[in-house]
Each structure stands twice: as C-alpha cells, then as structure tokens.
Specification:
34% of the residues lie in helices and 23% in strands. By secondary structure, it is of the alpha/beta class. It folds into 3 domains: 236 residues, Aminohydrolase, N-terminal nucleophile (Ntn) domain (Glutamine Phosphoribosylpyrophosphate, subunit 1, domain 1, 4-Layer Sandwich), CATH 3.60.20.10; 205 residues, 3-Layer(aba) Sandwich (Rossmann fold), CATH 3.40.50.10490; 148 residues, Rossmann fold, CATH 3.40.50. The strands form 5 sheets. It has an 8-stranded antiparallel beta sheet with strand order 3-2-4-1-10-9-11-15, covered by helices on one side. Strands 5-6-7-8-12-13-14 form a 7-stranded antiparallel beta sheet. Strand 23, helix 15 and strand 24 form a beta-alpha-beta unit. Bound molecules: fructose -6-phosphate (F6R). The site of fructose -6-phosphate has 15 residues, from helix 8 and helix 15.
C-alpha cells in the first residue's frame, strides 16, 4: 500500500526520493509525488500512474533543485487515483507539505471544522486535513504543531512533513503504520520499509507508535507523544542489497520461489540445537504452556492458509485444540478467548491492519500472544508478547511464496518444540530430521517438475480451475487456488475433496481442470475416489502425489511430483509446484506477475 520516503543531506533530494519510491513500487500504488524544499520554497511534482512518469516529468529529479524533500506512492482509498489526490499535499500558505500512509478515521469532522475556519481543500483525500491542521497549529515550532495535530487524529498514520521555515529538516510521525529512520553520513532518511533505505545505509531506527522524529543532515532527534526527547536503539540491516533485486530472473516471484530452499533453511537451521528444536525467544512462554487450553491461529490471506496447514501438526503433536480464524472475522466476533488461550498471529509484513486489530482484541481479552513475522520491527512484532521471526529475507512480489513457506516451517517447529516441552513427543529425532530435510525436499520439488511450463500452456486458457484435497492436502489446495487467481486472474477455487458431492460437482464438465493434492496417506484412497468421480464427469485431472504412488499415477491425466516426506509436514513441499504453475500460467497470459491488479503487498487498511 502507500509508501513514504524522506531525505535530507548534501546531495540533490529529488533523485534520492525517486530511487526510494521505485524501491517501494512493489507495495502497490496508483499515483506518486515528491515535494522538495529549495531556498525557502516547496515545489511539488505529482503524477497519476507510474514512477516512470514522475521521473520523466522531473528529468529523473534533475529539474527539481533542493537538498531536502519527501515522496509518496499512493494506493487510492479516499478519492480516485488522480493527480489532485496524489501526495504530497500542501498547506494553503504553501509553507508545509505532507505525505501520509494510513487512514484518518475522523477526517470528515475535521474537514468540516477546517472548512468552517476558512481552509480550502484541493483533494478528496483524508490526508489533506493533516496539512491544514499543521498550518492551523503552527506558531513558530513545527514539533509543537505536529503534537497538537497528532492529538486530533484518529486512525493510522505514518507522516512525513517538511516546512519551508525550517530548511534542511524533515519530520516523521508514526501511529499504527510502519516508519523507519535511516542514518547515513551527513544525510538522513525515513521510509515505510527498509528496502527504500538499504542502497544508502544499513543503520536504522524503528519508530514506534506515538513517536516523532526530527531529522537534519547530521542529527536525528526522537520524541514521544508528549514531546519528551527519548533515545532509541540503532539496528543494523544484515541482508544483502541483492536480496531485494531480481538477480537475473524475469520476476521477483520466480526468484522468491527459487529462494525457498535457502529461506526455509535460514528459518529452520539456527533453531535446531543438539538434535532438538529450540526457540530462545520463547523461554518465557515455556513455563506457561501447561496452562494453555487452546491455540487460536489468526491471520489474513496466505498467512491464514499457512495457519491452516500448521494447525494439523500443532494439534497432532501437542494434543491441544487449535482453531484457525481469519483476522478480519475474529476481530468482530466477540471471540471466546481468555488467559488460557495462546494466540498465534501470522504475518509476513507485520503491518496487516486486520491482523493487528485481531491481535489487539485478543490481548485485551488476556490471551498470551505469539507473533510469527518476517519484517523485523513491524507492528505485529512489537505488539505481541513473543515474536518468532521467519527468516525469508525481503519479499518483493505481491503474491507471497517464501513468506508463506517459512511461516509453515515455523509452525511445524513450534509444534515439535511445544510437544517436546510438554513431554508429549515420542518420535522427536525423526521429526527433527524431517524438519532439517525440508529445504532439500523443496529443492527436489522444483527439480522434479520441469514440465510445469508445458502444463501451464495446456491450462492457461481455462475459465476456471478447481483445487481439491483432504486434511493437510486441503490446506495446500486453499493456497494453491489463491496463488492461481491472484496472479493469473483465472477463477480458481479450493474444495475439501469430500465436499464436492455436496454441490460443487455440479460445476464439473467436459475438460474442466481439477488439480488434486494426494499426499496424505490417511485420506489418499478417499481422494482417489474423488478423482474417479470428477473424471467420469469429463474433468481433466492434474494430480500431485508422492512420486511412487502408482494408483494416482495411473488415475490422473497429468502429474506434478512431490518428493517423499512425512505427510504431516508435506504441505510446505506440495505448494511449490503449484506456485510455479500459477507463475507460468500468469506468464502465458501476459499478466503483471509481481504487481497483480488491485492488490497491494502490505494491506494496511481494513
Ligand atoms: C497472497 C498474499 C496475501 C497475504 C495477506 C497477509 O499471496 O500475499 O494474501 O498473505 O495479505 O499479509 P501479511 O502476511 O503481510 O499479513
């Protein structure tokens, strides 16, 4: 969703801002703009559409003089994606420019009040109230005006502000929306995420809710919401700049699919010590485990499906009931959650609005909370009692791949870890070996299926695809269908195979593609019957069995092979050929794979 950058230093600001905005393109946007301060004047350039047009308009920044500025990519919520609605927004007196990520919930009341007071609005956005409030409260001190403004705002915001009265300074404010400061040599930055900073610096400060920062070229000062100066830890970004670049692949998505063996290894290996799973970060939770009466997993989209896959292992090994709930539903469901509930909240970005709200709701009801998160320092990570980081590295493609598989890997490890600590695990060494084998098996799943592009050419013109499976295979079907529809725009639905007869089978007709997951031996015979049922109604079946499963091999029309593995953990392997299939189908259809239409990488609105 929206992205923010800010820069102050000794080099021209506009090219730095444009470069930062390009790094944030993956978050999804439909307009962009920059505001740069020069000799006491703020100039604003905005476009509808791509950053490339903004670069063209400004001669790659060369036509915009000045060393201090802010920039923005906007994903439209309030008002259409037009130039007027694009950020930065200017105050009526032209002294302030503001960029904003988030939603101002009380903007209508504020807008009416400001109009009554004589302020003129140029856009339909919720953001514009902010810049007029700052102008209204400004009495010679920007920090004071920001504190007063923030006190009037309800909702979520990461703000970047410049004021023509304060050359060389940029201001950043955070409330429930990500904002990170970058510390350079005689130059400083802020951005919505670290990908926009790593080309310039690896030293960063994660702002927390209610914090303000005042940055000049050689100084960073941070304040709490009452204006008291505070000191914050400087963190070091350890991942490689190349991790956020395509590295010879046509798309980030394909690169990230191929990175999964390494990402899962980086997530699993450091947590296995002396043949046991060990999470040092959960030392405080271990004594509380015997008191846990149920586990609730909550998340959105693929992260929710990762939870669906992980539920089986947690329940089987720990013998604790596990519920999976969509965060957008849980938050409004008056949930039956108390201090004996362990809430596991899963999020790649750590900034998904519904996930954050569900986490807050469950915390308020007394649940113990554990976050499984990829982005270090994100909101979900800072709100939860305990955080286990997946170590997928930066995920740029909007459709998650390595984010999802590393989430499942963590859930499997948690299942083994909890069960072992609860004294409920008999076959720990075998399970730990299975966990260690996951990266290798994911690589095999890639290598064993060179036919994916050809299968994609066979299926890419289909009107609809059905994904079926039972138990753990059903969890994979859910994610397989989501991957297909979000990047190829082909209608794809997942069904628990046993449910077909209860309605869906009416949709099966001649040549209708059915993708059948058949790796779970406890239900394989049953899924086989479902394959026979759909085939006898004319369906073309593409099956995904373990490679030596002769019965499925002879029943299906087409095959993708899964290397042998413990069925409890196999979803993390099964999904990989389906990610590749979705990728190649989307490619055959000429889709914008890394930035599918209408989607954003981190969904910071409800
Ligand atoms: C699908 C996808 C989304 C995310 C969902 C949650 O490919 O990426 O469904 O999984 O928006 O995002 P996070 O994990 O960032 O909370």
């Amino acid at each position: 969703m929206c992205g923010i950058v800010g820069f102050t230093g000794r080099q021209s600001a506009a090219p730095v801002l444009l470069d930062g905005l390009k790094k944030l393109e993956y978050r999804g946007y439909d307009s962009a703009g920059i505001a740069v301060m020069d000799n006491g004047t703020i100039s604003v350039n905005k476009v509808r559409g791509r950053i490339a047009s903004l670069c063209e308009k400004t001669g790659d920044g060369a036509s915009v003089p000045g060393f201090t500025g802010i920039g923005h990519t906007r994903w439209a919520t309030h008002g259409a994606p037009t130039e007027e609605n694009a950020h930065p927004h200017l105050s009526n007196d032209g002294r302030f420019a503001v960029v904003h990520n988030g939603i101002i919930e009380n903007y209508i009341v504020l807008r009416e009040e400001l109009i009554r007071d004589g302020y003129r609005f140029q856009s339909e956005t919720d953001t514009e109230v902010i810049v007029h409030l700052i102008e209204m409260y400004y009495a010679g001190n920007v920090r004071d005006a920001l504190i007063k403004t923030a006190n009037r705002l309800r909702g979520s915001y990461a703000l970047g502000v410049i004021c023509s009265e304060e050359p060389g300074k940029i201001y950043a404010v955070r409330e429930a929306s990500p904002l990170i400061l970058g510390i350079g040599m005689d130059e400083n930055f802020f951005a919505s995420d670290v990908t926009a900073l790593v080309n310039h610096t690896r030293n960063v400060v994660y702002l927390e809710d209610g914090e303000f920062a005042e940055l000049s070229g050689n100084d960073i000062r941070i304040f709490d919401c009452s204006g008291r100066e505070i000191s914050k830890k400087v963190s070091r970004i350890t991942w490689d700049v190349q991790a956020a670049e395509k590295g010879g692949y046509d798309h980030f998505m394909l690169k990230e699919i191929m990175e999964q063996p390494a990402a899962v290894r980086a997530t699993v290996a450091p947590r296995i010590k002396d043949g046991k799973v060990d999470f040092e970060e959960l030392a405080g939770l271990v004594p509380e485990l015997p008191d846990v009466s149920k586990i609730v997993i909550t998340a959105c989209g693929s992260a929710y499906y990762a939870g669906c896959a992980g539920k089986y292992a947690l329940e089987r090994l720990c013998r604790i009931p596990v519920e999976t709930q969509l965060a957008s539903e849980l938050r409004y469901s008056d949930p039956l959650i108390d201090s004996r509930t362990l809430l596991i909240v899963i999020s790649q970005s750590g900034e998904t609005a519904d996930t954050i709200a569900a986490l807050r709701e469950c915390r308020a009801r007394g649940a113990k909370t554990l976050a499984v998160v990829n982005v270090v320092g994100s909101s979900v990570a800072s709100l939860a009692d305990y955080t286990v980081y997946t170590r997928a590295g930066p995920e740029i493609a909007v459709a998650t791949t390595k984010g999802y598989t590393t989430q499942i890997a963590v859930l499997y490890m948690l299942a083994v870890f909890f069960a072992e600590r609860l004294g409920r695990l008999d076959d720990a060494p075998e399970l730990v070996e299975e966990l260690q084998a996951l990266p290798r098996r994911i690589q095999q799943a890639i290598d064993m299926n060179p036919s994916v592009p050809a299968l994609a050419r066979k299926y890419h013109e289909s009107r609809a695809l059905f994904f079926i499976g039972r138990n753990t295979d059903y969890a994979v079907a859910l994610e397989g269908a989501l991957k297909m529809k979000e990047i190829s725009y082909i209608h794809a639905e997942a069904y628990a195979a046993g449910e077909l007869k209860h309605g869906t089978i009416a949709l099966i007709e001649e040549h209708c593609p059915v993708i059948a997951l058949c790796c779970n031996p406890s239900v394989m015979e049953k899924t086989l019957s479902n394959i026979v049922e759909v085939k006898s109604r004319g369906a073309e079946v593409l099956a995904l069995p373990f490679r030596d499963n002769r019965r499925i091999l002879s029943a299906a029309d087409d095959l993708l092979f899964i290397p042998d593995a413990d069925a409890l953990f196999s979803p993390v392997i099964e999904i990989v050929p389906l990610q590749l299939l979705a990728y190649y189908v989307a490619k055959a259809n000429g889709c914008d794979i890394d930035k599918p239409k209408n989607l954003a990488k981190s969904v910071t609105v409800e």
